[in-house]
Design a protein that fits this description.
The complex is a heterodimer of chains A (59) and B (392). Chain A contains 2 helices and 4 strands. Chain A is of the alpha+beta class and 59 residues long. Chain A has one domain: Alpha-Beta Plaits (2-Layer Sandwich). Chain B has a domain of 205 residues: FAD/NAD(P)-binding domain (3-Layer(bba) Sandwich). In chain B, helix 1 runs parallel beside helix 4. The chains are: A alpha+beta (59), B alpha/beta (392). At the A-B interface, helix 1, strand 2 and helix 2 of A face strand 12, helix 6 and strand 16 of B. Chain A: It holds the Pfam family Fer4_7.
């Protein structure tokens, strides 16, 4: 799953623009990740701040 | 807020505000919405733009002009400097703006032209009937609302959703996005009349560092890197390294992050009942990253085309495709060329950048046009003929 470090995020929307599933949304200062996310991790690579991380789902 | 308009514009950046203003000036009933609570803030821009282009849209005002620059310096990775005067430096220099004030000023011109403006108002989906876009669903200060319109304008920036909802694929590939971080730095020694650029894959892979003055001892210091060049370090990491090298004593008073579409214009900018303007249509320049002027050009064309279509009561796909044609006519050639240039530059090794910069030693750039400069580069670097000849 994608986690967002909200203290590091600069709410720029770069991650939203590259999401092939349209699973991310930026609302004011808040990135939302919905269940369409396929955990491809593309968003983590374009985040200018390194605020997004792909972590393994908890069982 | 009403439930019915001629045009709803989603996003109150320069492109959206100019679209709204142009449509309102022609008597249309326009709603301009912005999901943030403050138009223009937070800033996601290096704030450089051209004087000539900007003044086509709004009277220059000292309240939103931080600095005027008369040229640019490009530093190769080895420090070799190419100095360009204003004419050669292109339309991304001239003014360094205060976008927080500028964006509001442009939105005010839309409001004064008669557009209704609503902030903290987000589109969450489109209303469609028989495949035709005819309005939006959204949230206004947290409350659900629906508003119908003859045409919806997507001006919702790099993270555009409106186009996707209408079936236009706006997803950027990592190789077509410059991801950026910037500090507003004060109390530093800079040249206050020059925009400076530092090239080099060690400093900004597939991009460059910029220093845009915002006063005598203050500047936007930022960089963009290509999304596909990520190898574990983010733009903010590279920026800290550059700061430590160039401005270790600088005081950071603002952090700005953002991204620039470097894909070139979308192949499709309109569909039934909808058009895309500005960064949502990917009309920003792939090589310079400049998007203010191009966005406003697309906004003005959209406003005019929509006014004609609505007055003629013809909102067919064919009628709205006039928008695609006119934007392509106004911006397409330059965007296509600069996309090819970007593809060339991002693949260039530092050694190539150094040798080109060194080869230009002694050239009088004061008397040179861009085509002449390219000819000079090819003359002095014949091995680059095939790669560069197709660009111009």
């Amino acid at each position: 799953m994608i986690t967002v470090n909200r203290y590091r995020c600069g709410y720029c929307g770069a991650c939203v623009s590259v999401c092939p599933r349209d699973a991310l949304d930026l609302v004011e200062t808040y990135i939302e990740v919905d269940d369409k996310c396929s955990n491809c991790g593309i968003c983590t690579k374009v985040c200018p701040m390194g605020a997004l991380e792909l972590v393994e789902d908890e069982e | 807020m009403k439930s019915n308009y001629d045009v709803i514009v989603v996003g109150a950046g320069p492109a959206g505000s100019i679209a709204a203003r142009t449509a309102a000036e022609q008597g249309l009933d326009v709603l301009l919405i912005e999901k943030r609570q403050e138009i223009g803030d937070p800033v996601r821009c290096a704030e450089g733009t051209g004087k000539m282009g900007l003044s086509q849209f709004i009277e220059p005002d000292p309240r939103w002009i931080c600095a005027e620059v008369t040229g640019a310096r490009i530093f190769a990775p080895d420090g070799t400097c190419i100095e360009l005067n204003e004419k050669l430096a292109g339309k991304e220099v001239g003014y360094v703006l205060e976008r927080k004030i500028f964006d509001r000023a442009v939105a005010k011109t839309a409001a004064r032209a008669g557009a209704e403006v609503q902030v903290k108002t987000q589109a969450t989906s489109l209303i469609k009937e028989n495949g035709v876009v005819c309005g939006i669903k959204g949230k206004h200060r947290g409350e659900d609302f629906e508003a119908r319109a003859k045409v919806v304008v997507g001006a919702d920036g790099i993270e555009s959703k409106v186009g996707k909802w209408a079936g236009i694929n706006t997803t950027l590939k990592p190789k077509d996005i410059e991801t950026c971080a910037q500090f507003l730095v004060t109390d530093i020694d800079i040249r206050a009349d020059s925009c400076d650029f530092y090239m080099g894959n060690l400093r900004a892979p597939g991009g460059y560092v910029w220093i845009f003055p915002k006063g005598k001892r203050e500047a936007n210091v930022g960089l963009g890197m290509l999304g596909s060049r990520f190898t574990g370090k983010h733009p903010i990491d590279y920026l800290h390294e550059f700061m430590a090298w160039k401005f270790p004593e600088g005081k950071i008073i603002e952090t700005v992050v953002g991204a620039v579409p470097a894909s070139g214009m979308l192949k499709q900018l309109s569909t039934s009942g909808l058009v895309l303007v500005g960064d949502a249509g990917r009309v920003s320049d792939p090589i310079t990253g400049g998007g203010i002027y191009n966005g406003m050009v697309s906004g003005r064309i959209a406003g005019n085309v929509l006014a004609d279509a609505i007055k003629a009561n013809d909102l067919s796909v064919k009628k709205l495709q006039r928008y695609d044609r006119e934007v392509r006519e106004a911006l397409g050639k330059q965007l296509d060329r600069n996309y090819k240039a970007k593809e060339f530059v991002v693949k260039a090794e530092d050694s190539l950048m150094n040798s080109v910069a060194r080869s230009l030693h002694g050239v009088n750039f004061e008397e040179m046009s861009v085509p002449k400069l390219l000819k000079e580069i090819i003359t002095r670097n014949p091995s680059m003929f095939l790669e560069l000849a197709g660009l111009f």
